[in-house]
Amino acid sequence: MENSKEMRKWLDDMALPHPLVIAGPCSAETEDQVLKIAHNLKDTDVNYYRAGIWKPRTRPGNFEGVGAIGLKWLQKVKDETGLKTATEVANRAHVDLALEHDVDLLWIGARSTVSPFIVQEIADALEGTDKIVLIKNPVNPDLSLWLGAVERLYSADIKNLGVIHRGFSTYEKTKYRNIPEWQLAIELQSKFPDLPIINDPSHITGKRDMIFDVSQTALDLNFDGLMIETHYDPDNAWSDAAQQVTPQRLVQIMNDLRIRKETDEEAEYNSKLNNLRAQIDVIDNQLIDTLGKRMKVSDGIGKLKKQRNVAVLQSNRWNAILGKMILEGESQGLSEEFVLRMFKAIHQESINHQEKIINK
């Protein structure tokens, strides 16, 4: 993508002393709720006030947003607090209404990013706009879809672009609502280093007590900002109650985050080093998660062996695995000695798991 540095200009022009902060309720519920939260946030680090006007719900019957009337409430937010406003759009009609009510920042949601037809419709509706447009990653972990959405909007002469990393859906039960898959965001950064990237820890975690840790990881990976859902009464919010924080907690999170600034050569070195270390931390966590899954499979094998009264150690199978992994390791630049030591340790842990089951 040529002249991609144009996409960062809108963020650089803001000359912020801290990462960009987009905050506000998951959903606009009432005029009083929208304005009360905005007034609680107006003297904080928040740069854009977000509120969902149209809410795409997985199943019908849930609260799907107040609709266009909420845009008038956002206009009042701007008039009364001076905060710039942001909301999600999912089709041409949403875009037209949002522009009519002078919303400053529009984002395309994860459910919309999966459809090139929807993205193209929005791109056509926004063609040539100077509004800031952010694109959430698609629901599924597909980097090409994410980049394709960026390219469609950039081709529509929309230069003030950025992306939002909100995690990816999975059938597996994990501690996250949407697993981060940090490596996809890292790969996107490597392809387009000038594309601003915002982290959405609210949707990644689904739990307010995890928001700080995910936010810190994002900043360690040189993300440009955070989108954090904020409500004065989170437990009684009409949508996504568990992942919203109070304005007071948001202020505390921003105060506690370690924000590294590149002010001189030493600071730049430390920033790059911390970024690489953060990447290692992400991968290490994935390794532990993968090993845990492997041992669960071993437990299943142990149960089968117990039923059939089969010995735990199967030498032919083990030798075949070793040979294959040594070759795979060499293709990744790993020494034979390292691969042997690693898989012997994994194999021993697997044997331990199976013996526990067989000896019960």
Number of domains: 2
CATH topology of the largest domain: TIM Barrel
> What is the β-strand count?
8
Overall pLDDT score: 91
The CATH homologous superfamily of the largest domain: Aldolase class I
What is the N-to-C succession of helices and strands?
A: HEHEHEHEHHEHEHEHHEHHHH
Give the neighbour order of strands across the main sheet.
1-2-3-4-5-6-7-8
Distance between the termini: 60 Å
What is the count of helical runs?
14
What class, by secondary structure content?
alpha/beta
Morphology:
elongated
Compose a concise summary of this entry.
Helix content is 52%, strand content 10%. With 360 residues, the chain is of the alpha/beta class. It starts with 5 loop residues before the first helix and ends with a helix.
Explain this structure to me?
The chain is an alpha/beta fold. The protein has 2 domains: 6-259, Alpha-Beta Barrel (TIM Barrel); 272-358, Chorismate mutase (Chorismate Mutase Domain, subunit A), CATH 1.20.59.10. It contains 14 helices and 8 strands. It has helices spanning 6-14, 31-41, 69-81, 92-100, 110-113, 116-126, 143-155, 182-191, 201-205, 211-220, 247-256, 265-308, 315-331, 336-358; strands spanning 20-24, 48-50, 84-89, 105-108, 132-136, 161-165, 197-199, 225-229. An 8-stranded parallel beta barrel has the order 1-2-3-4-5-6-7-8, surrounded by 6 helices. Strand 1, helix 2 and strand 2 (48-50) form a beta-alpha-beta unit. Helix 2 (31-41) runs parallel beside helix 3 (69-81) and helix 12 (265-308) packs across helix 14. The radius of gyration is 24 Å and the shape is elongated. The relative contact order is 0.10.
